[in-house]
């Protein structure tokens, strides 16, 4: 049975369905740092995050913060973007993600590790497109973890000089929206990182007419 056949939850129980609430879904392969990125964004340890042989995040969870007078709901996701994750449990968590993000996300934040955009990342992006549709790319921001590894180079130069054609193609498809996080940053640096991401998101939402992304899933 296909993934979409399981998407039958009633979304009336979703949190913060008002357009006054922006909803960000963290997407990407397991181990890319989605949970740690969510904690950095929220400024608190909302999601379990640690190094391990198996993915730590087993279920969708949401945390919220206030930004410029607006509530922002951040949704952490388990590994249902892996092509092999098509069992009942994965579909149940996908259902939960849809319910939490109803009436639709304002941003899909694709988390990938700096210098490690691999075939697994590429497959995860393909899976995102399968689930949310190609139109979701208009609402996607690429977020690199391990910003500290840039050393003296700028992120812009890293992307511009990269010989990874898949990565460059992804960034182009996302409208050149990207930033980087050091998830071990000091509070001052953390605030600067969050401000940059929120600025990118605000511009993207304006370009999208102030609307969240929605399709037949919602």
UniProtKB/TrEMBL annotation:
GO terms for molecular function: GTP binding. Keywords: GTP-binding, Nucleotide-binding. Gene3D superfamilies: P-loop containing nucleotide triphosphate hydrolases. SUPFAM superfamilies: P-loop containing nucleoside triphosphate hydrolases. CDD domains: AIG1. Residues 19-218 form the AIG1-type G domain. Pfam families: AIG1. InterPro entries: G_AIG1 (IPR006703), GIMA/IAN/Toc (IPR045058), P-loop_NTPase (IPR027417). PANTHER family: GTPASE IMAP FAMILY MEMBER 8 (PTHR10903:SF73), GTPASE, IMAP FAMILY MEMBER-RELATED (PTHR10903). Belongs to the TRAFAC class TrmE-Era-EngA-EngB-Septin-like GTPase superfamily. AIG1/Toc34/Toc159-like paraseptin GTPase family. IAN subfamily. This is AIG1-type G domain-containing protein.
């Amino acid at each position: 049975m296909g993934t979409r056949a399981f998407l039958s939850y009633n979304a009336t129980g979703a949190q913060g369905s008002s357009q006054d609430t922006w909803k960000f879904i963290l997407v990407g392969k397991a181990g890319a740092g989605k949970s740690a990125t969510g904690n950095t964004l929220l400024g608190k340890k909302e999601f379990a995050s640690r190094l391990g042989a198996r993915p730590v995040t087993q279920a969708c969870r949401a945390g919220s913060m206030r930004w410029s007078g607006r509530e922002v709901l951040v949704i952490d996701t388990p590994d249902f973007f892996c092509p092999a994750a098509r069992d009942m449990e994965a579909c149940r968590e996908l259902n939960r993600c849809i319910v939490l993000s109803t009436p639709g996300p304002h941003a899909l934040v694709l988390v990938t590790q700096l210098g490690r955009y691999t075939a697994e990342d590429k497959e995860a992006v393909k899976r995102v497109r399968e689930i949310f549709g190609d139109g979701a790319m208009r609402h996607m921001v690429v977020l690199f973890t391990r910003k500290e590894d840039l050393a003296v180079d700028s992120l812009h130069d890293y992307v511009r000089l990269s010989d990874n054609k898949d990565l460059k193609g992804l960034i182009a498809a996302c409208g050149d929206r990207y930033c980087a996080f050091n998830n071990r940053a000091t509070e001052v640096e953390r605030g600067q990182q969050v401000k940059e991401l929120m600025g990118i998101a605000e511009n993207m939402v304006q370009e999208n007419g102030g609307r969240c992304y929605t399709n037949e899933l919602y």
